[in-house]
Write a structure and sequence with these properties.
Elements lengths: L2 E10 L4 E7 L2 E5 L7 E7 L10 E10 L2 E11 L5 E4 L10 E3 L2 E8 L12 E9 L4 H5 L15 E5 L8 H7 L8 H6 L1 H7 L4 H16 L6 H7 L3 E4 L1 E2 L3 H6 L7 E4 L2 E5 H14 L5 E5 L13 H12 L9 E3 L8 H7 L1 E7 L3 E3 L3 H4 L5 H8 L3 H4 L4 E5 L8 H9 L7 H24 L6 E5 L4 H16 L1
Parallel strand pairs: 1-10, 11-21, 12-16, 16-18, 17-18, 19-20, 20-21
Antiparallel strand pairs: 1-4, 2-3, 2-5, 5-6, 6-7, 8-9, 9-10, 13-14, 14-15
Length: about 475
Amino acid sequence: MVSKGITVYSYISVAGYEVEFSVPNGRIINTSNDNHSAKDLEIGSRNIPGIENYTGRFVWRVLQNSREIANRYNDINSLTGNLEGGNMKSTLQDQSIFMGDVIISYGFYDAGSGKAGLTNKDQCFVTVTANQSTWMGSLAPQGSPAALKPFSRFVLVAPHDDGMNTMQNSDAVINALDSSNLFKFKDNIPEFRWFGDLLPSEVLVHLLPDIVYALAITQKDTITSMLGLGARYFEFRPAFPVPLFTEISHLENKPYFQHACIPGLAYDVFLDQIVAFLDTHVAEIVTVHIRWDNIVGECRHPTIDELGAAMQNALGKSTSNGHLKCGAIDCLTQSIDTLRSSGRRLICMIEANKYDSWTAEAYATLTAAPIIGRFESMNTEGQESHPLTVLQCQATSQSIKEVLVYSVFAANAATSCLSATKAMLDQQTLPWIKDNVLTRLQAEKPIVVMNDFIDGATVDVAINLSRARLAR
C-alpha cells in the first residue's frame, strides 16, 4: 500500500461546534477539547476503490449541533502525493468564511517528500470562533470602568506583512518582466540570487510567480476580513514602486506595501478599508504603524506631507461627518473613552521604537523552539523603554536557502513554506503567550501578537489577555 499523510489541527471557541476531518476509511472529530493539538490521517491506496485509482478525497466539515454548515476538500493522489482537484488548491483562495456570528478560518499546505527539513505530510488547520468585529466595544463599553482604563491595556492582533495578501500588483510587474530586466529582482532581493546561481534568466523569469508567492505572501484575507476576525494593529510599509516597474507595466505610481521591492496592497486601498470599517464599528480603535524595514533604496518613501494627504483623503470618505480622526502615538497612553469621544479611533505612528521578539537568526526556523526562546528572553524591564511590545508567532523559513529553493521547485499555489509551519507553530506559540504574558510582561504598554495567515485562535488569545489586563 502507498499513502499520503495529513496532519490536522483545529481550534474551536464557540459552543456546539465540532470539526470533522475525513479521508477514505478514516475520520477524526475534534471539539474544543482538542484545541492546540495535532492528529494524523492517511490517504491509503487500499482504501480507494479501483485497481488503477490512487486518488482519495480529504474533507473538513464544520458541524453545528451535528449539522454541517461548511466544508472544503482536496483530492490527493496517494501514490504521488500531488493535488489532483479540490477547493483548497491555492492559499490565497483559502479565505475566511463569515457565517453571521461565527467565522471559520482555514488553510492547507500541499507537502512534498520532506526535503530541506520540511514535513512530508500535508497540513490543514481550521478555526471556528466568534465574529470579533466589535470585540473592543464588548470588552470596554462606552462609560464602563474598563473604558476608563488606558488604551495600552489592550493586547492587539496584528497580521504579519498585512499588505502581502494579494498578487494582483506584483503580477502586473511580473507579467511585464523578461530576462533583460530581471536584474531588478536579482539586485534587490538577495534570495533571488539563490535561483540565479542555478538557472538561466530565461527559465528564472517563468518561475517568478512561484518565487514571489513562496517569499512574500503572508496573508490570504482582505483587510476588511482581517478586521472582522479581530485584527486591530497593522504594520504597513508604504513606498513607491521601483521606477522600472511602472515604466514596463500598468502599475500606477503610488505607494504600495513593499516586501523589499515586491508591491502588495496599495496604501490608499488599505486606508479606505480601515476607514469604512471604523465608520460602521464606532467603538473600535485601529492602530497603523508606518515602517520601512528592508525596503530597497529605489522604492521612494512617501514624505510626511504625502502620508498626511493620503490619510486625509481616506478620512474624507468617512460617513462620520468629520467625527472620525487620526491620532498619534500619544493616544496609546490615553483612556479608551477619551479616544472614542474625541474621534481619534485611527491611531497612526511612524517608525516607533518597539520591543520585538523578532531576530533574523531566531526566526529562520522550521520549529517553534527558537521563537519560544525569544519570548522567554523578554520581560517587564525590557518593555519600559519602548512604547509597545510585539510578539511574533510566525517563522521566516523562506530565509533558509534550501527551504525556499525546494518550495519553489516543488511549487503550486498551496506549497508556500510559510503555510508549512503555520499550524505547527501556532500549536506551541499561542499557548505560551496565553500562559505567560500576564506574568512576564506587566508594563503599562500595549502588547501586539503578530502572525501569518491571521486566524481566530490568534485573535482569541489576544482578546482573553485584553480582558484580564482591563480587569486589573
